[in-house]
Amino acid sequence: MTPKNIHETQPEKVQTGDVIPNVHYVDENLRSIQQIEGGGPIRKVDLGTLPRPLRIFGYFFISVIVLMGAAVVVISFVR
């Protein structure tokens, strides 16, 4: 068995001059804003890593949105 076949699922090393696919999509219209902020690419917010007051507010806000959606569905069936 040749060493190349040992790790078939791992990509081979990229040689100089090869085209590297863009892993992170960057919107060109937002590039200047991202560079000013210095935060890198836009990511989803993980509520579990936020401080407790912000987490509670986030969960409250999401639950209010879900309850309002459920109320709209219930009211539409009642009429």
Question: How does this model look, in words?
Answer:
The chain has 79 residues and is mainly alpha-helical. The protein has a domain at 45-79. It has helices at 31-37, 52-78. The longest helix has 27 residues, at 52-78. The model has no long low-confidence stretch (mean pLDDT 76).
Name the features.
mainly alpha; 2 helices
Q: Mean pLDDT score, rounded?
A: 76
Uncertain segments are none
User: Main β-sheet, in a few words?
Assistant: none
Number of helices: 2
Q: What does this entry show, briefly?
A:
The protein is 43% helix and 0% strand. The radius of gyration is 23 Å and the shape is elongated. The chain is mainly α and 79 residues long.
Topology, pairings included?
Blueprint: H1 31-37, H2 52-78
